[in-house]
Design brief:
alpha+beta; 3 domains; five-stranded antiparallel β-sheet
Length: about 210
Amino acid sequence: MDKTSLIALSAAGIIGLSGVGFGAYQAGARQADRPVATVDDAHYDGLNDDVFVDDIVIEPVAPPAPTLAHVLKVEPITRSWQVPREDCHVVEVQRQAPITSEHNTTGTLLGAVVGGVLGNQVGGGNGKKVATAAGILAGGYAGNRIQDNQQRSRTYTTTELQCSTVYDTRSETTGYTVTYLLGDERGSVRMDHRPGDTLPVRDGQVVTR
């Protein structure tokens, strides 16, 4: 190859490389001038929820499902019942004294004597006898009643144990009503134990055990 041919070949190579570089530069410039796709430039396909931007598919991203529910309030559930028991106390009481004579003989005799004496002082002759007899009868009856009343009014004080049935209230906690917040929704569940500040969530449902 002579010198002239070598110079011509080198010139052709330089021109070719220059063309390739210029073409790459033009392509880059066009790419840089192309606006960046934004959501405002997007349009929706009427058949589904996919978003297209200049032939680029942007799939909507769903927010992650919550894995915890926040406990707002815990209310105990209780059961109550009554338990009977005997309540006993020692108290003072008044008792009637025993009756010493059922027939009140002493009072009858004393009353008869007094009545007879008083009746004997009334009238004279047979009238005095009648008055004396009447006085004896009246005095005996009065003495009997007086002695009976005295015996029944006699009392004494003593102590005794008195008992009565009273009822005590017992109660126990059988569970808890728990109000929680899952996302932006409130809910409540019944649990057999007191929870902490949060409840686990599985498949969108609060786990209570």
